[in-house]
Amino acid sequence: MGSVLPVSGHTRVAAVIGDPVAHSRSPAVHNAAFAATGLDWVYVAFATEGGQADRALEAMVTLGLGGLSVTMPHKEQVATSLENLSPLARRLGAVNCVAWDGDHLVGHNTDATGFVAALAHEGHGVDGATVAVVGAGGAGRAVVAGMLDAGAARIHVINRSPGRGADAVALDPSRCAVGEPSDIAAADIVVNATPVGMTGRPGCPVPLGLLHDNQVVVELVYDPVDTELLVMAREAGASTVDGLGMLVHQAADAFRLWTGVEPPVDVMRSAASSVAIA
Question: Is the pLDDT of residue 6 over 90?
Fold first, then answer.
């Protein structure tokens, strides 16, 4: 791993905006990547209240920030504020990464691509798979979009609110349907896209007895890394992918967009794993 370069007047700055954002592992992940690749960049976190995303984008232009990560509650506002969006970001109506294209800002969504890359990194393909996605918020919709683009044959979206489930299904009604918990048992890939299981929200989003071997169970929660769902899945004989996978791979896609340099994924994963959460 390379050493951190001293910050100077030539150092480029990238940042994440969100509220809250003090807990973010992104500064550790990106700064480790900059050090490993010898890039004279630094990454910081800016606490930005809801409704202030437009001002953050103006600041990005004024200050010449090299890149911007966007987390809750700003993803939808940034998507409506930017004139230029990637096809995927436009389809989802959500942006988690802003990059430069010449003199123009472009909004991207690397959550969807990062999710599929995390599965591929662990040796799990999506093409032809039957999938159950639990949760239909922004993360759930990104997962559905990523799975569709990667060739999933059928996706069941399971959500407490049928309306939000229908919004996710609308991404491709020919391959998606609003599902029931019982659909989990028949799925090749099971994804938790809810906050259930994170610190402060203990529990498991999947009923007992529905998981088994020959399944891949994927968690988006990464605090804690080893959730009740993953423990239960391993006990049932399933393969598991923890929540750091999507976190790291969406960051890797952003790093590539900002710098044009291939990201050091293993370094980024190590940095994400070593962050102490208060």
Answer: no
User: And the tokens for 70?
Assistant: 């966007």
Indicate which residue of 25, 30, 75, 108 is catalytic: 75
- Using CA atoms, how far apart are residues 141 and 156, in angstroms rounded to an integer? 12
pTM of the entire predicted model: 0.92
Per-residue pLDDT tens over the stretch 109-151: 999 999 999 999 999 999 999 999 999 999 999 999 999 999 9
Closest CA to 30 of 79, 78, 65: 65
* Range 12-108+250-274: architecture per CATH: 3-Layer(aba) Sandwich (3.40)
d(CA 114, CA 254): 9
Look up 77 and say whether it is catalytic.
no
Please tell me the CATH code under which domain 113-242 is placed: 3.40.50.720
